[in-house]
Design brief:
- It is a single chain.
- The chain is α+β, with helices and mostly antiparallel strands and 165 residues long.
- 39% of the residues lie in helices and 16% in strands.
- The protein has eight helices and five strands, in the order H-H-E-E-H-H-E-H-E-E-H-H-H.
- Strand 4 and strand 5 form a beta hairpin.
């Protein structure tokens, strides 16, 4: 099976200028844990995830620092943590180096990427445009449906039937 067989084709995206509060609302309203960040030309410039929003000043969850940790840590790391916990726009906290795959990437290759890069979702691109996104949940759906071998034998119906499509 390939990315095109399991990806979600309707991808919720956001813009770099979106506020942190608005992207949090977007993620809650659409029940997603991450969203690709697209510039005005619809180019993929980043990805924002729940993990990027975890340590925030507004929620009192920013990392505490002792004098000792400040002394042992580099100033640049502390500055980066401060910016991430206090920034108001997606562009200031998004991950800029986005792992992406093509439509023909195998599920094995996608799983390997997710595991080695410690990521939970990967945008699927075709000619530079986002055409879908594959999440860990998409891989779990294949597992729940009997796996890739069953899907190869019976087509997409095998995947969709157990999950109510």
């Amino acid at each position: 099976m390939r990315a095109s067989d399991v990806m979600a084709r309707s991808v919720i995206t956001t813009a770099p200028e979106t506020t942190v509060a608005d992207v949090a609302k977007l993620m809650i309203n659409h029940r997603i844990s991450g969203a690709p960040v697209m510039d005005r030309d619809r180019r993929l410039v980043g990805i924002i995830t729940e993990g990027d929003l975890l340590r925030r000043a507004e929620t009192g969850t920013e990392r505490p620092h002792s004098r000792r940790s400040e002394w042992l840590s580099g100033n640049s790391r502390l500055a980066a943590e401060y910016i991430k916990s206090h920034a108001k726009r997606v562009k200031d906290i998004m991950t800029r180096e986005v792992v992406r795959v093509g439509e023909m990437e195998t599920l094995r290759e996608i799983a390997d990427l997710m595991e080695t890069k410690w990521i939970k979702r990967v945008p699927v691109v075709h000619n530079g445009d986002i055409v879908g996104i594959v999440s860990r949940a998409d891989l779990l759906r294949v597992l729940a449906s009997g796996g890739a071998k069953a899907a190869d034998e019976d087509g997409d119906r095998t995947i969709r039937r157990p999950i109510g499509h």
